[in-house]
Write a structure and sequence with these properties.
Structural class: alpha+beta
Distance between the termini: 38 Å
Radius of gyration: 17 Å
Shape: globular
Helix content: 10-25%
Number of helices: 4
Strand order of the largest sheet: 1-4-5
Number of strands: 9
């Protein structure tokens, strides 16, 4: 079991840090297996910042972080063959860089998002799709 999951189960607190292109390499390196006594922040030169509601820090270089309390966990699959644990949290605080916020909303392009596509493939949002037909999904349905 990775230290991250052990810490979440012990403290019932965690932070989801958005991985942007400028910090992707450091975030990728931080995800490797380290002994419990190693501080990943120090290893990859990221800055840990205290949060408002618990012990888990956020990544200062991340443009968006969600501070959460543990709601539930569910193990899926077989541990030896790609099993995992789904962690569900209640968002307690949202931290967003001022450079990513305009007119009361997030400006997606400024996040410089990177996502895992599967296997060893990663991607970013070079293609932007804006839906004009809001009959299926929009804020008016909230």
């Amino acid at each position: 079991m990775k230290d991250t999951l052990v810490n979440i189960l012990e403290t019932k607190h965690f932070v989801v840090n958005h991985c942007s292109w400028p910090i992707f390499g450091k975030g990728y390196k931080a995800a490797q297996e380290y002994p419990p006594e190693v501080d990943e922040y120090d290893e990859v030169s990221l800055t840990a910042v205290p949060t408002q509601h618990g012990i888990a820090p956020l990544v200062d270089e991340s443009p968006l972080s969600l501070e959460c309390s543990l709601y539930s966990c569910m193990d899926i699959g077989e541990p030896k063959y790609g099993g995992s644990t789904i962690v569900v949290g209640k968002v307690l605080e949202v931290y967003i860089s001022k450079s990513c916020w305009k007119n009361g909303q997030i400006v997606p392009e400024t996040l410089e998002s990177v996502s895992r596509l599967g296997a060893m493939n990663y991607g970013n949002a070079d293609i932007k799709l804006s839906m004009k037909d809001d009959s299926v999904w929009s804020t008016k349905h909230w």
